[in-house]
Amino acid sequence: MATSNASRQRTPPWPLSERSVWREVDLLPFAHYLSVHPNGTAEPIRWWDPPAPELPTDLAAPELRKALVAAVAARAGASSAIGADLSGGMDSTSLCFLAAEQGPRLVTIRRQLMDPRNCDDSIAGRAAADLPAAEHIVLDKDTASPYYESPDRDDLAMDEPPPFIAMASHMEDVARIMASHGVTRHLQGHGSDELAATGTTYVNALAQRSLLGSLGMVRAARARRRWSLATTLRVVRAFPPYAQWLHRSGDELLCPPDVESEVGWEPAPRLPPWASREAAALVREAITRTAGTDPQPMSSIPTQHEILRCIRVNGGIIRFANTLGERFGVSFEAPFLDDRVVETALSVRMADRYVVGRHKPVLAAALRGTVPDYVLDRTTKSHFTVDVYAGRKRNLAKMREMCEESLLVDLGLIGREGFRRALSSTMPDPMHMGTLEKTMACEAWLRSLPAKSSPQAH
Fold first, then answer.
1. Could you check whether the bond before residue 15 is cis, i.e. omega within 30 degrees of 0?
2. DSSP-derived secondary structure for 224-278
3. Which one, of 101, 92, 151, lies nearest residue 123 by Cα?
4. Are 54 and 347 in contact, with CB atoms under 8 Å apart?
5. Contact by Cβ (8 Å): 151, 123
6. Sheet containing 81-85: order of strands
């Protein structure tokens, strides 16, 4: 089962990502609660700050284990049956073994990948054999809904465009199947990749603490990501203040995504080539105006800020999944997003978050003895590229029809010709697949709005 890697998703930059799309509706600031006074007035009160990253693995691992066990127990404790993804990946598979210790009947589900080089299936099969008391459901290419099965739907009960649309039908399949097996809560591994992120902001954090001590990690990252010397120097030097970085990103909205756009506090926002000039001007103005207010990042450490951004993106994914699951009485749950789990992960010492040849070393240390070594010691990770392209090919007619009837075109936000070209190419550009899905999600959302209302953005 796929879990979203939000660290690869380009989203509106902070704090624009926190804005409501509706007029006269404001969201509470990050890490604040609303205090309502007896006289009817109200004010946001800050209740949390990111912890300092100071805990070594031997201290952090037991705390992380305790937080994860509590997070899973909170979902399983009141249930006669608990569902869980069993993809074969370290995150969801670990949750399966934690859930199996809690007592309720365990029902797992996984989607077989179409890529013949996929290595997840063999791990998932082995894990299923080690969980003999659980019931295991496998969806193959004939029983799993393909990607983009319903991009043209008009029934999305969301107050903003959903974070994904390609797998919406699959998520509904999971909810329907789980409901038929008496499951009301279903565990997913969202958030684990982000908590263990070791991308450009992580390399920067190590370099800022000790450039000499970080040389091994810098060399490894440069070789793996094929950075030029200039890019490497940008990664290791101190990033500009957040407001300055945000202002600069507004001037590069129409530049194609590249390695350079990944260097900074977040992946720099980029608009697809089918975005209209009017839309680009609106976005640029919003970014410039926000940068002028000197917004502060969620953490003064860029990698901590980026982790928190990704965790909040994952929260949006789970909220959307639950709008699909509630139709079947099933709640999608993400234990890795729990406050205490996130707080513990952020408290891990920077140097301990990455070990050469090891994947998520702190999580592995936390779960050693409960989760089999062949899961915790994996150094490979399968992808869903073949499935995505196959689903796109199968449902291309629906997507092209959406282009010809596009409400985004009617609103002047995208150009029909550019949108059409993106859908007509024999082999679509991989760097545009994410923005294409977001365009489809916006279209589906606009179609889902009540006919009497019109979308009004800030």
1. yes
2. HHT--HHHHHHHHSPPPPHHHHHHHHHTTTTSPP-GGGGSSSSPPP---TTB-HH
3. 92
4. yes
5. no
6. 135-139, 105-111, 81-85, 185-187, 331-333
* Token representation of residue 183: 């499951």
Q: What is the DSSP letter of 144?
A: S
C-alpha distances in angstroms, 389 versus 143, 145, 164, 196, 385? 18, 14, 16, 28, 6
Burial 328-362 (b: 16+ CB within 10 A, else e): bebbbbbbbbbeebbbbbbbbbbbbbbeeeebbbb
- Global pTM value: 0.91
> 343 vs 68, 230, 304, 334, CA distance in Å?
12, 34, 11, 15
Would you tell me how many other CB atoms lie within 10 Å of the CB of residue 451?
A: 5
Burial grade of 427 (CB within 10 A; 0-12, 13-18, 19 or more): exposed
b/e string for 52-62 if b means 16 or more Cβ within 10 A? ebebebeebbe
pLDDT tens-digit profile of 406-446? 999 999 999 999 999 988 876 666 777 888 999 999 999 99
Amino acid at 228: S
Write the pLDDT tens digit of every residue in 240-263: 999 999 999 998 898 877 777 788
